[in-house]
Amino acid sequence: MSxxxxxxxxxxxxxxxGIVAVNGLSFAARHGEITALxxxxxxGKTTVFNCITGFYKPTGGTIRLSHxxxxxxxxxxxxxxxxxxxxxxxxTFQNIRxxxxxxxxxxxxxxxxxxxxxxxxxxxxxxxxxxxWRSAEAxxxxxxxxxxxxxxxxxRADDAAGNLPYGDQRRLxxxxxxxxxxxxxxxxxxxxxxxxxxxxxxxELLMSxxxxxxTSILLIEHDMSVxxxxxxxxxxxxxxxxxxxxxxxxxxxxxxxxxxYLGVEDDEVAAVEQELGL
Amino acid sequence: xxxxxxxxxxxxxxxxxKKRGLDVAFIFKKSLISALVALVLFSxxxxxxxxAGPTGQLIYWTRxxxxxxxxxxxxxxxxxxxxxxxxxxxxxxxxxxxxxVQGALSFAGRVLPPLMLGFTFLMPVIFYDQRYILDLGILxxxxxxxxWGLNVVVxxxxxxxxxxxxxxxxxxxxxxxxxxxxxxSFWVCLPLAGILAAFWGVLLGFPVLRLRGDYLAIVTLAFxxxxxxxxxxxxxxxxxxxxxxxxxxxxxxxxxxxxAEDGLAARLGIEFSPTHRIVFLFYLIxxxxxxxxxxxxxxxxxxxxxxxxxxxxxxxxxxxLGINTTTTKLTAFATGAMFGGFAGAFFATRQxxxxxxxxxxxxxxxxxAIVVLGGMGSQLGVALAAVAMIGGxxxxxxxxxxxxxxxxxxxxxxxxxxxRGLIGHRAPTVFLEQSxxxxxxxxxxxx
Amino acid sequence: MDYxxxxxxxxxxxxxxxxxxxxxxxxVYGIVGMINFAHGDVFMIGGFIALISFLILVSLGLTFVPVxxxxxxxxxxxxxxxxGWTVERIAYRPLRHSFRLAxxxxxxxxxxxxxxxxxVAQGARVKPVPPIITGGxxxxxADGFVVRLSNIQIIVVITTVVLLAIFTWLVAKTxxxxxxxxxxxxxxxxxxxxxxxxxxxxxxxxxxxxxxSVAGMMYLLYYGLVDFFxxxxxxxKAFTAAVLGGIGSLPGAMLGGLLIGLIExxxxxxFSVEYKDVAAFSILIIVLIFLPTGLLGRPEVEKV
Lengths: 278, 447, 304
Hints:
Chain A has helices spanning 45-52, 80-85, 104-111, 113-119, 124-127, 131-150, 166-178, 196-212, 224-230, 248-252, 255-262, 266-276, and strands at 5-16, 19-30, 34-38, 60-66, 72-74, 89-91, 184-188, 216-220, 233-238, 241-246. By secondary structure, chain A is of the alpha/beta class. Chain A is globular, with a radius of gyration of 20 Å. The mean pLDDT of chain A is 86. In chain B, 67% of the residues lie in helices and 4% in strands. Chain B is globular.
């Protein structure tokens, strides 16, 4: 099954007034893989994310998400919460967006809202404390506990999310996204602000998610050590256009990518390549 | 005018305090400036009194004595405030609370609700002969219920609602109209009033879904005013400014509380007393308030309640988690409105007469003040705040014309004293090991 | 048509008054991000002070109307501005960096204080004054219907336009205006660059209150009465105007004021007087459904 595309972005365009943030972007991410979206600051990566997760309505193009059971969704036609609810795309944010006044456990419970809402009979069964609701609640707490354990925050389950150290908040946000049982997990700079040890832990976590095989990952990341270590596939953006697409090794050696990161014009690329001994 | 704090006494305190680093000259200068500002502010408004004379022509007379007294009061008050400030330490000083005190507080937090509840249950027994206290109790409980209802919208979902009184009005008029026109009983009308109010809650909810903060505030305010104005002007239905009178009193599940032969007193073979009805009303509003409280506490532990709180914390994150923010907001509005509607129906049956005067913006502000002063989202805080506000309001009944002045000042001072309300923490809805209160500094206020 | 023209004139005059009040709301909102609920009552205080100073001047024997008006205007502006300053100092400054709802409630509390204060100080009854400025022009007469433009209407509109011009100049060209705009963008940064933030915010309240006092005086001259409750209704409508125009935007406040004034007048003229406020509020709600940030407000881009 691995190898079929889960996400196919075709000719995606996003304009804000006169500013073209993304233009004619096409790429695909495959089931069971970690796909990285990289590029210099302002390349339009987060805009792509916001289009995929429904926070922006793309100006043009299509985004198609296919589940393993063959169901597929045109994400640009679904609006905001349905992308997460129906198409099962979860995301994290560049600047962490936890519910700071709620405990770590509560954060993970909120993430299971839709499942719990059904179990609570749209609140009415829950209000009278029906046994079916109680068991659903217990298993939701169990799922949260499993995730808290996986991210090493079991001891801090009952602490306010806003009180957790930065690195813990990053992992909690990933756990929260995972509690929606997503098919595709979109991570916006998950390693930003983490130290080397925390980054390594993050890589491990992401690889363990991949190993389970139920969730594919799309990530934006600046930390190249993380990208190169865990990605199966890398897409490089610059000025809203795709400039490279392939394995980490392939991308690392691409002249245009180097130029984009070093900020030189195309005709200087040859010179740069020579300098770098490529 | 209020008796002045004798200036010599203040000066003596100041002199005694000087050796502890008190800058008397500074305080004196500051108070003098305050007095000067007061002089300008009050010069025309208090120094001169206008009134329409017998011929309709405006006349005026001066009141320099009052003016001098007021300016003097400001001077003295300003000295007192400065001294207090000096004694209390600089603004923003953290008065840290030791673990012992914290333990005592949490103990009080656990013991207080059952004590309050027990006392409330016994009130009609203790104060059986004191109708005034029972009436006041009913009034306080009505506001406790309104506060708990609005708490769902403002405290949990973080949606600012300045027009809550509209739902109170809808509930009251629903009952009044259904009962007087169709002769429906209170027990049939009560759920209907709640449903109608919830319907209006959803109706208001729709247009304001996309609005934020102050836009939301003004639209809800406008909505409250629209409802009130329609009630005033739709005379054929609502009786306009004259209101609706002769609203049936509630029956105890069909048994009227009257001296009639089929009345409760006659059936029980006891002597009739009008207090029976008061006691019944007391327990009725207590039951309604407790129902509100029970449902709210239950809802907080259900996904919908958690979604409300999550919405208050971060709406964008909610959407990313697949939560339908539209229905979540609408249910918050509807639930809050429904409780307001219940309270309104109770108000109508208790008064026997309603008019638009009871549903002004001032009521909305009062209920909102109760919620915010209570500490947003805290059920206990709201109850305490309702007791303090309505009780305090009642204490100043003697001052009649100064009541709103005192109330307004109290609102300003209480907000400065405790911007986050009396109960400064949030209790988690679920825990693994131990429920740890969350400081309200972390809790967001919504929009 | 003639009837319409007359209503149009009336609406513009009323709208000018609303606009002047709305500017105070919009300025304060722009700079401290809160609704100054007491602003409507500051407007009411302005009306009262104009009334009292007018009475005193007349009883002192002054008869030359322009001089009276000028003195009344200055006295009313000065004292009302001090009210604005005091309100900010007492009720808002201690809550400057507090949670959003606390200043809103203390503002509502302040509104109650001012309302009750003038009720206690000046009595609850409506204070009528005889028309001070009389006369006017008949624009044209057709089918027995006279379209009139009264002197007072001219004065209201001219005063509004002049004040707007001065105010626009103040915001655009002066040091104070620059400080105000800086504080609006980023208070911390402004303070780092040497802007006295406290003073700038105080001045914002002072200017807003001064404009409101002019509105109060115009209201007194135009309608010939003041009462302690007038601040509430006028305040809500002016705030509605500010929101309608897009809160934070000065031209928006004026535009919103004119629109609310026109809606109210035309609705009263063609439909029903009783429901004029309902119409104004309903239009507010309808506009906000389609333009959540008002007519001229900056659209809010949700940063994710």
